[in-house]
Design goal:
alpha/beta; 5-stranded parallel sheet; two-stranded parallel ribbon; 13 helices; 7 strands; GDSL esterase/lipase At5g45950; GDSL_lipolytic_enzyme; SGNH_plant_lipase-like; SGNH_hydro_sf
């Protein structure tokens, strides 16, 4: 009864379209259920700087990226500030940021508070990572195994096992599998129809989750694929004034299949799971920015807002107030949009896990 009241109180603080999370209450839930840390896998939506250590062009460790981060410091995050995972970590009571596992300045004592293994430009398909020379999910899981070794050395076997089994695992990827792989590179379309490719991605996802479970994962949040046709760069390439409906339908259909697969894995492996509807959130923010407190939903804050991302943002001016924009560059959301996504993830965490 005590927890039911707490849960209702938290949900009451999260009104539709204007998310606001009562942090002390969320931390009570996290403490009550021993949420030990946040462990993150995925692409640029959750890469806090791992690509800085790689020989790849897919980096953002330069201004104007990080313009609104602490001390206006570019970190390798593809946004003007923090990512959704950073806000989730802060909400449950740990650090204000999730450090990248490959950060040369990462200290052993930091490991128990969580890290990100994510790598910008990766996807469920290992070939997606190969195209940009970034970390595949297989490699991210290999680093996770290394993380566990370092963690055991730091805190001991029993504590390390407790941390990994009670961590909140977040997976966010899929966009690059379509935009940088299937719809751009010739290899996969020769091998798979679109539906077959989606099923292939789901099989890879299932394989990765099973390996994650073997390594200790029990609580899993999946961030769905965003509306591909609403990304400013894609609209520019396609010459679409509004969102490209055909690409949005691909993302929408894949998210439905992803949820199905997640439910199968939930039952089979005994996981606690939730799927964050980033598709719906971003589509609503783009089509009606004011409902989330934005002014501009059709283009990014950097440069023209229609084509610039990654390297092409170097030395380019940005808007004066990124909080008015859904997108930071022509592909990635602003810190404010990520905060809203984080609050949706936290709401899913509270309602679906306990």
């Amino acid at each position: 009864m005590e927890y039911l009241v707490l849960k209702i109180m938290i949900l009451a603080t999260i009104p539709f379209y204007s998310l606001a999370v009562e942090i002390p209450l969320v931390r009570q839930v996290a403490l009550k259920y021993n949420v030990s840390c946040i462990l993150v896998f995925g692409d640029s939506s959750v890469d806090s700087g791992n690509n800085n250590a790689l020989h790849t062009t897919m980096k953002s460790n330069f201004l104007p990226y990080g313009k609104d981060f602490f001390h206006s410091r570019p970190t390798g995050r593809f946004s003007n500030g923090r990512l959704a995972t950073d806000f989730v970590a802060e909400a449950v009571g740990y650090r204000k940021v999730i450090p990248p596992f490959l950060d040369p300045n990462l200290k052993p004592e930091d490991l128990e508070y969580g890290v990100s293994f994510a790598s910008a430009a990766t996807g469920f398909d290992d070939y997606t990572a190969e195209v940009s020379n970034v970390l595949s999910v297989s490699k991210q899981l290999e680093y996770f195994a290394h993380y566990k070794i370092h963690l055991r050395r730091e805190v001991g076997e029993e504590r390390a096992e407790f941390i990994t089994r009670n961590a909140l695992y977040i997976i966010s990827m899929g966009t690059n599998d379509f935009l940088q792989n299937y719809f751009l590179e010739p290899t996969r379309p020769k091998q798979f129809s679109l539906e077959e490719f989606e099923n292939f991605l789901l099989s890879r996802f299932a394989k990765d989750v099973k390996e994650m479970h073997r390594l200790g994962a029990r609580r899993l949040i999946i961030v769905g694929v965003l509306p591909l046709g609403c990304i400013p760069l894609i609209k520019t390439i396609r010459g679409a004034e509004g969102c490209d409906k055909s690409l949005n339908s691909v993302a929408h259909a894949f998210n439905a299949k992803l949820l199905q697969q997640l439910n199968i894995l939930k039952t089979k492996l005994g996981l606690r799971t939730a799927l964050v509807d980033v598709y719906g959130m971003i589509q609503r923010a783009v089509t009606n920015p004011k409902q989330y407190g934005f002014v501009e939903g059709s283009k990014g804050c950097v440069g023209t807002g229609t084509i610039e991302y990654g390297d092409s943002c170097k030395g380019v001016n940005s808007c004066s107030d990124a909080d008015k924009y859904v997108f930071w560059d022509a592909v990635h959301p602003t810190q404010k949009m990520y905060k809203l996504i984080a609050e949706e993830a936290i709401a899913s965490f509270v309602t679906n896990f306990f």
